[in-house]
Amino acid sequence: MICTGPRLLRRGAPAPSYAGDVEQHPPPGGARGALGDLNGARDAPNNAGDARAARDAPNNPNNPNNPNNPPIGVGPWPGDPDAWPDDPRYDPELLAHGDARNVVDAYRYWSMEAIVADLDLRRHGFDVAIENWQHDLNIGSIVRTANAFLAGAVHIVGRRRWNRRGAMVTDRYQHIVQHDTVADLVAWARERGRPIVAVDNVEGSVDVTEAELPEDAILLFGQEGPGLTPEALAAATTTVGIRQYGSTRSINAAAAAAIVMHEWVRRHARREA
């Protein structure tokens, strides 16, 4: 991957040094001493037990059983069923028992089908496609972001089983399209006249802030580590990258997807959200 930085050095010019700006704190015994300290902390007999005890402490805000935690969602609708609203979008089960789902307040008590129907009236023109050859943990997070930015659909390319944990159930509100191969995705896109925009920091990629992002683009993302396959890069209409300034060769795949989706939204989305 190619990472672009904020400035270029002339050939032969000395690289800038930041050594004087960073305090050095060598551990006792040098690096080997530090490694020993880390190994000792890791192998301490009570380390795991102490962590579990801290997590499960009654006053820990991360403990779901903490009585001081604020309630999640909303409780049952006040009154008996005769007092409930007769709007067909409301789910009687949610009215009776409350709604703790991960949805915005405007959709509280609505059935899943009603929410999807309402989202379908407002979905944006871009789709998201994700290669899935290694059961990447990031796929679920990308699906969740696609829901947040109201993508038209999410395309899974490759294995039919994908890691849904990071999606936090948002996949139920998205249209998921399965393609067994990159060629299948390309055929689907060509049939509908949809451009494919690959996202990967490879040689020749265009900075996403300067590149063209068509309103009906299919934004194609790869997996953590290998990025997009050569077949996917070859199939793309254009390839965009994300400008980076540090030492890492790439950023997390889910973070990259969020950046590019937000760039599309910044240019094309309506402002009523």
Describe the structure.
The chain is α/β, with parallel strands linked by helices and 273 residues long. The protein folds into 2 domains: 58-121, no CATH class; 122-268, Alpha/beta knot, CATH 3.40.1280.10. It contains 8 helices and 7 strands; from the N terminus they run H-H-H-H-E-H-E-E-H-E-E-E-H-E-H. It has helices at 30-43, 47-55, 92-97, 112-120, 138-148, 182-191, 230-235, 253-268; strands at 127-132, 154-158, 176-179, 196-199, 206-207, 218-221, 238-241. Strands 3-2-1-6-4-7-5 form a 7-stranded parallel β-sheet, sandwiched between helices.
SSE blueprint:
Blueprint: H1 30-43, H2 47-55, H3 92-97, H4 112-120, E1 127-132, H5 138-148, E2 154-158, E3 176-179, H6 182-191, E4 196-199, E5 206-207, E6 218-221, H7 230-235, E7 238-241, H8 253-268
Parallel strand pairs: 1-2, 1-6, 2-3, 4-6, 4-7, 5-7
Short characterization:
The protein is an alpha/beta fold and 273 residues long.
Nearest-integer average pLDDT:
83
Number of strands: 7
Low-confidence stretches: 1-38
CATH architecture annotation name of the largest domain: 3-Layer(aba) Sandwich
| Elements, N to C (H/E) | HHHHEHEEHEEEHEH
| Annotated CATH topology of the largest domain | Alpha/beta knot
**How can the largest sheet be summarized?**
7 strands, parallel
| Whole-number total of structural domains | 2
The CATH homologous superfamily name of the largest domain equals SPOUT methyltransferase, trefoil knot domain
Shape: globular
Helix content: 25-40%
Count helical runs.
8
- Assembly state of the chains shown: single chain
CATH level-1 class of the largest domain: Alpha Beta
Euclidean distance between termini CA atoms: 35 Å
